[in-house]
Amino acid sequence: MAHIVILGAGYGGLGIARKLAKLAPEGTIIDLIDRNKKHVESIQLYRVAAGTAQPDDISFDIQAVIPESVHFIQANVKKVDYENKKVEFTDHADISYDYVVLALGFRSENFGMEGANEYSYKLQDIPTAQKIYQVINSNMRDYKQSQDPNDLNIAVCGAGFTGIELLGELIDTAKVLKAKYNVPEINITSIEMAPQILPMFDSQLAQYAVNFLKKNGIKILTGAKIKKIEQNAVVYTKGDSDEEQRVYANSIIWTVGVSGSDVIKDSGFDVKRNRITVTDYLNIQDHPEIYVVGDDSASIDPKSGRPLPTTGQLALAQARVAAVNIVAALNNAPQKKFNYNSAGTVASLGPHHGIAEMTKPHIKLTGHVASLAKNSSFEVVLYECAGIKGLKKPN
Q1: Residues with catalytic function
Q2: Gap between the Cα atoms of 174 and 204, Å rounded
């Protein structure tokens, strides 16, 4: 009787649990383990940070959406002892496995930036998202008494997907808080090291996003290399110049990058940014009983030779193939190579606006239609990892 342990109940973990429940031989033990009782829709965290959504709006009970044949355990993973095929926890007895899936998700990465931990707020989970909105709200509220112009300034470090979607959401948040506290104009600045934002999109779509954000009062600094974070400022340089410049703000939000779970590094795996380079079959070369999906994996794109960008769409695609391959291993059958074909890329620019580039057929969308495409693609992700119950958001 085989024992499969899935670590993490994010998109990849839930997806593989549901798939294994359908495919695994009768009698297979499937444990799904997460430190939280609720699954958090991590690609929606920016909405909580902007105050446009509550935690319950972007989360649901894990136990309520998994198949009966999957056993859920709430526990905090300490490390994977891959030599002895067991998982160690901080709050639970060790669990041995025949196969294990690493799907532990991401953490915010500050790259050792001076002052980032002390003076900026990372967007990583629900508590950090709530903290960001609390800081923004309290600064706006306090302005009339403090008369500190930096209370009215918000700086967002990093203009990747998370940063851009947060900026779009903050447009409405700024209007609401300006009216609520009767304060002067609220200033929002994006600081990005790359020469352009959203390079994964067609250049026309990326420019559309830039124009939309600027039209709605967002200042975008590209080619701005952040040097350090001070108590009320982001210090950066431009181009080849060593001259330090500053964006002053009392609300500094860090969305520069993410890495895989620290559990991956703490377990002694060979990693880069806490991610494991997997084989074409999504397992580890020297330990084929270990499969890795989502933010903890580095699946190499054969076209570019670089790891594929980690998204919910990718995690679910990996989950489908990893589940098939685990069952094939159980049956001593050939495994399937993972070939990723993206269905498209969508980014929101606030609740009713966005950009989208779909692959089949190849179409480009902007504005409200793109926002609808974003919502539709998200519902597809939710349905695959949680079924109808996930769409209904059980508590």
Answers
A1: 165
A2: 27
